[in-house]
Amino acid sequence: MKNLLFLVALVFMISCQDQNSEAPEAVEPTNTPEQTSEFAIVIHGGAGTILKENMTPELEKEYNAKLTEAIQTGHEILKNGGSSMDAVEAAIRVMEDSPLFNSGKGAVFTHDGINSLDASFMDGATLNAGAVAGVTTVKNPISLARKVMTDSEHVLLSGDGADAFAKALQDPNIEIVSNSYFYTENRFKGLQRVLEKEAEMEAEKQMTEPKTTALRQLELKDPYFNDSKYGTVGCVALDKNGNIAAGTSTGGMTNKKYGRIGDAPIIGSGTYANNATCGVSSTGHGEYFIRAQVAYDISALIEYSGLTLKEATDKVIQDKLVKLGGTGGVVALDHYGNVSMDFNTPGMYRAMMNDKGDLIVGMYKD
Amino acid sequence: MKNLLFLVALVFMISCQDQNSEAPEAVEPTNTPEQTSEFAIVIHGGAGTILKENMTPELEKEYNAKLTEAIQTGHEILKNGGSSMDAVEAAIRVMEDSPLFNSGKGAVFTHDGINSLDASFMDGATLNAGAVAGVTTVKNPISLARKVMTDSEHVLLSGDGADAFAKALQDPNIEIVSNSYFYTENRFKGLQRVLEKEAEMEAEKQMTEPKTTALRQLELKDPYFNDSKYGTVGCVALDKNGNIAAGTSTGGMTNKKYGRIGDAPIIGSGTYANNATCGVSSTGHGEYFIRAQVAYDISALIEYSGLTLKEATDKVIQDKLVKLGGTGGVVALDHYGNVSMDFNTPGMYRAMMNDKGDLIVGMYKD
Asked: Positive or negative, the Cα torsion across A222, A223, A227, A230?
């Protein structure tokens, strides 16, 4: 009898030709293919070892306030009929301008003691996209990523070239700053602690084994600063016209070397948006997010396997990524206004708002 | 009756739980889920406006000879029980060392008159991957991409940092050269012609409309040099142990500016490999290949929609990419040893060999 029902459900699914109908294996889908919210917005401020016992009440309050400010900024735009692209850019700029997050002001330091920023932006209506990697003089990299999308024929610009592109724009929205603008004492001390640890490890190694090459430094895994891998901000929004946009911005890893590029500026890994499926912004150990194609994979599971948004983010974050050994999370929403905030780390700074103005702000695993 | 058969086929498909069985909509699948070749290798040397009427018999002979040499180099490794990773690296090195292709020696010139190279490499057994963007002193970028995968904890390194990583390796297989090594007269003249054309266009613009910013230069679309967007080399191989590897290497676009990064070093766009599905190497207008997630999308269509390799490459190259406006092609193979060489341009330099030693070399649309 169960099999028969299953069969009927399958035939129905196929006759509907609806790519977004429920997956046959979903007994109790958590999202339904009905409009749950006319518009919606979701943000993250990074995932990692975020534990209540390590947080002071003051810092908790600061994070709560800034996440609330960021999401309300985007929500206001959507409520007034603005575009999801404007909402995503505005919400991310609030977080970039805050030293609380590893993006823009407050970004972590590279091995060479500078701040080097990555960002990406995608328009789900056109599948157009823009991204920058390794910019050092642009106050709001998310705005530059959007400009790469709209004002160049390219998707990804890097290094000094991306800074030169920013300067050539002569756009008041793309503010050029000196690299020292990004300096914060906390992040600079963070780099110093990693460098000290690295020197200790190097000294230990030289006592016990033959002198290794500089490459060994790349393998540094410092438990104290593991979190520096996860600091990223991101936003996904659905507007009243049914358009989805997504963006991600980061300062990358503390002590990054060799021009390392993580997943944040990589379309399909750090950011993806498609009106037909969903929008996604990632935060986590970037190398695994690239290998697992995290952002696009969630969209593909919805489009090709008929999973709901919640099922798709769970599959990727709690199953596929875990099997690879990757840690982090995503915020995502689909064209029905369903929202998912999914992570496999102890915590993720996050917030969401729907068309009723309901606000959820979170940090820890509930 | 037809519907009933369809239903039976569906039930069978689900009861088998075989992700790679035929798609229900495939009436006459071109590939079957049976081992067609114990091992196989396929390469490309770029796609674009490759037309017989523009080719001299001498040049045609040279391309044929070099494609044959490259694929036989890889095939020999597979035949002797070597790994798909070794075969991919060796075949691509042959093409990188030849001035016929836009990779390694013979790479196109950037706006600043240098050669800047990108490459990526992926191991389908572990989903591990490595890539480099904008290296200027490494003779064989594909070997460096493989080293990023095996000798660092990163996936993507860029610019001077990637060159520094190469130097630190002190590996005889990673030969450091001066940038002038990559110089070829043809490619240098190619840049000069683009720059002249650009200056003409700029002069025309200034006569007819207000002075535009430097950004407008990015929008240059020169029909004479359109092909310079497509020059890339790539290889995918399946070895006797069932392991798939894929790699891609390119000099990018003639006259590229602002540190532009195309799809070649982007895992999921330019290169993807997964033993469970397939391996893919792309060549084409990189921006569209990033937006369309070309390489991973082919894998996802096999894994989630049950398409055959041929159906999946056709869907992506002849349908989805065309709708976006993207031109180019892919070479791909699956774990059954099926091979696909699919492109929507007038031609693609390509070759394939199977376990019987059958060799196919092609350039034009058949």
From this structure: positive
